[in-house]
Amino acid sequence: MKIDKMPTNLKATEMSDWMQNMAAPPLLSYLEVGSWKFEQKNMVKTPTFDKNGVKKGAWSEDEDDKLRAYIQRYGHWNWRLLPKFAGLSRSGKSCRLRWVNYLRPDIKHGNFTKEEEDLIVELHKKLGNRWSEMAAYLPGRSDNEIKNRWHTHLKKRAKKDDADALENEHIEPDQPNNPKQNPVHQNPDLEFQQDVERLILTESPLSSSSTNFSPTAESFWPEPFQSDNDSIISSSDHNLFSTSSDFVYPVIPSQDVIIGDEFLWSSMDSYLEYGDQFMR
DNA sequence: AATGCAGTCAACCGCCACGTA
DNA sequence: CTACGTGGCGGTTGACTGCAT
């Protein structure tokens, strides 16, 4: 729901309550007043526009829908041009980020499990701040999410674990994990691989997808956008451009499809020739 | 009730690697 | 070899929440 004005006789806190009540489910999912958007739970400041008219800041539901619908139908053949075709006033980078970190169908939302957290700690010991590599071991989690989790939660835990381990080493120097006594520890790579395998293959809910586990991004987590490309060939429309209520898109003849230069050039040419007259 | 502060997370920015002309 | 465009990565920021005072 959108309205132009809010009550003028309310204090800030009262206004917030008023908004929350107005937007409370099941009546409304959100409420926009001027430059503010109030959702069922959170209040998100509406994005600003830079001098080039590019929108920045939090994404609206409407923008999410447009981006999701466009990519699911046509894939992301060029991030820079995608926002134009999808009818979004965003930079390509912003679209990519939003898709990769939030809208991708295989993305997992919600809390990290204990197993996932253990894995992140282990991976960080081995890989350092290579978040994207770490993400390859955690299907459904984006590098950004892992990075945030590390900085906000796991960094402290890892520090504490290290301190505890150091202390235990002094107290019980004959533990099996003592590198001097356990031959596995003489090979850090082997040790790391075994640790990761153990973490993933135990009671972890991830275990079903890791039957053929191999600690490489390529084999463990299929190219995340593979399915996008598969899904692009869908239109039988013969018009060069088609419009839906929300976005404009080139209609790609099936032989032009998707992967490779042919798609790019035909759609690019179409866009350059006809695109502007369809843009809003 | 108001204020301060730490924690959380989505999003941005700058840089780099890679592919192509 | 160089220049340029693009995608991807990691660091950082800023808005918001929740808790303590």
UniProtKB/TrEMBL annotation:
Give the location in the cell.
Nucleus
Which segments show compositional bias classed as Basic and acidic residues? Answer: 159-173
Q: Which GO terms describe its molecular function?
A: DNA binding
Residue ranges constituting the HTH myb-type domain according to the UniProt record: 51-103, 104-158
Question: What keywords is this UniProt entry annotated with?
Answer: DNA-binding, Nucleus, Repeat, Transcription, Transcription regulation
Annotated SUPFAM superfamilies: Homeodomain-like
* Any Gene Ontology CC annotation: nucleus
Region described as Disordered:
157-187
Where the protein is mainly located, per its record? Answer: nucleus
Mind telling me which PROSITE patterns this protein's record contains?
HTH_MYB (PS51294), MYB_LIKE (PS50090)
One of this protein's Pfam families, by short name?
A: Myb_DNA-binding
Q: Where is the Myb-like domain?
A: 51-103, 104-154
User: Which ranges of the sequence are coiled-coil?
Assistant: none
Q: Which residue ranges have biased composition labelled Polar residues?
A: 175-185
Could you tell me which SMART domains the record lists for this protein? SANT (SM00717)
Q: Which domain of life is it from?
A: Eukaryota
- Protein's name in the database: Uncharacterized protein
